[in-house]
Amino acid sequence: MWEHEAVPVRIRSTFLLLLVSLGLAVSTSLAAETPAPAPAAELSVTDAIILGVVEGVTEFLPISSTGHLIIANQLLGLESEQQLTDRNGQLLWHKPPSEKYPAGVPLTLKLAADTYTVIIQVGAIAAVVFLYWQQLFLMLGGLLGRSSAGLRLLRNVMLAFVPIAIIGLLLHDLVDKYLFSVPGVAAAAAVGAFVILWAERWRNANTGVGHAKGDAADLPPRKALSIGFAQCLALCPGTSRSMVTIVGGYLAGLGPAKAAEFSFLVGLPTLAGAALYKGVRSGPAMIEVFGWSNVLLGTAVAMISALVAVKFLVHIISRYGLAFFAYYRLALAAVLLLFMLF
Question: What share of the chain is helix, strand, coil (3-state, %, to 5)?
């Protein structure tokens, strides 16, 4: 039953509605329980929509959502590291001075904006849950002992998630401190482009254009784990989690569409973990700066734009591979280089 039964569109639509309703209910409840003063800084509706579109479109395309969001934050003027104050002129703190933080951690516009761009990933997560509900249903069947394929797929998704969960947690602060910059994004975009072009040549030579060699559920555990270690390269902003996992899928023997599908599924726990981690650490500070309404707006826009982007990626990669995105990355790197020079 679990192996072959297709989930009706009505069930998927109902699940998406429940997911969105639950998110809104929780957010509204939290906002009601913790009434906050007026936001310390303004995030306009236009800014929220722009960041939502950038997040949703770039999260699953192999062009780096983090890199594009760094650029978007700079263009929107959300990179200020000056300490914010309340309406009475009192300094605001993310972490007040203490024995652990003698100098304290100031609450800044940059800190709030960086947190915002991670939190609205929840919208992109919802889009993948909606589009790939059947695979999630299959994995649930595997967990309940009703689908051997579902259990193997769940095993491979978790194996691909474990390396980024451990290494990402260990290196998170170092990445935030040293790698979030436009020059870093430009360099990673260019390097990633050449990786894509090499991967496409390798795929064409070894499997033939558009010919899949298997399904993600059939990957040996070691290959799923190797995709997980490849995903760790995406800790460098501008690299793209989607790019490295799809290329990893190629090398593991998956065809373009199957590699993209596995990348989306692996992205669910990865993005959810990042959003949860950032939300626990900096979520209250972000709400203090921006308020609730534009956080919900950005999340909703990210969900809608991610739905469109995932469909677009599957269409392009199934027919032409990843080369299109390599040329985009080279163009982006060139534009950023000119921006830095002039």
Answer: 75, 5, 25
**Which residues, in sequence order, are CB contacts of 15 under 8 Å at separation 6+?**
129, 130, 133
Query: What is the 8-class DSSP label of residue 86?
Result: -
Share of the chain above pLDDT 90, in %: 58
Indicate the SS3 state at residue 274. helix
Kind and range of the H or E run holding 244: helix 241-251
Distance of CA 222 to the CA centre of its chain: 24
pLDDT of residue 326 exceeding 80: yes
Inter-helix orientation angle 121-131/109-119, to 10°: 10
Go through 220-255 and write b for each residue having 16 or more CB atoms within 10 A of its CB, e for each that does not. Answer: eeebbbbbbebbbbbbbbbbbbbbbbbbbbbbbbbb
What is the rounded CA–CA span in Å between residue 202 and residue 247?
10
256-280 pLDDT, tens digit per residue, is 999 999 999 999 999 999 899 888 8
What residue segments make up the domains of the chain, in order of their start?
A: 9-341
pLDDT tops 60 at residue 18: no
Quick one: which of 59, 339, 336, 317 has its CA closest to 189?
336
* Mean pLDDT confidence for 139-159: 95
SS3 label, residue 207: coil
CB atoms within 10 A of CB 21: 10
Q: Is 97 helix (H, G, I), strand (E, B) or coil?
A: coil
Per-residue tokens: 86: 């309340």
Q: Tell me what the pLDDT averaged over the chain comes to.
A: 86
d(CA 87, CA 286) in angstroms, rounded, equals: 17
Amino acid at 177: K
Secondary structure (DSSP) of 121-190: HHHHHHHHHHHTHHHHHHHHHHHTTS-HHHHHHHHHHHHHHHHHHHHHHHHHHHHHHHT-SHHHHHHHHH
Helix (H) or strand (E) holding 91: none
Name the residue with tokens 């951690």. 105
Whole-model pTM: value is: 0.84
